[in-house]
Amino acid sequence: MDSPELWTVRGDPERDDRYHMISIFYLFWLKDEQDCKVTAQDDAASAEWYDLNDILKKPEVFAFDHHEVLAELVEKHASFKELRDSVNAEIDQIQK
To answer: Which end of the chain has fewer CB atoms surrounding its CB within 10 Å, N or C?
Structure first.
């Protein structure tokens, strides 16, 4: 795993009904062959790896503004240009 890249910090008092939560989001690049196991902690019931293209189509499975943060990352980060192009092509096909 390479060094983490700070993506964004969110701290809107309205984003979590329980209390004013401030979240720091990082981007990590993992090597394809690397065996990385995820573990749920804090208030997460579970943790799994997902296909980015698939999970972006399911905003209802995200907590708070996490789908918005991930969508913003894919939209703005240069590393996701190929994925953006693929998704845009899919949308174009659906709209035709």
So the answer is: C
Instruction: Tell me the per-residue pLDDT of 4-59, one tens digit each, with 9 for 90 and over.
Output: 999 999 988 887 788 888 889 999 887 765 668 888 888 788 888 888 888 988 99
Q: What one-character DSSP code corresponds to residue 73?
A: H
Q: Where are the domains of the chain?
A: 5-95
The amino acid at residue 39 is T
Contacts 24+ apart (CB under 8 A), 82-91: 83/52, 83/53, 86/53, 87/53, 87/56
C-alpha triplet 48, 50, 53: angle, nearest 5°: 165
Q: Which residues sit opposite 24 in a β-bridge?
A: 9
What is the distance between the alpha carbons of residues 31 and 79, in angstroms, rounded to a whole number?
15
- Over the Cα atoms of the chain, what is R_g? 15
Global pTM reads: 0.71
Give the DSSP letter of residue 78.
Answer: G
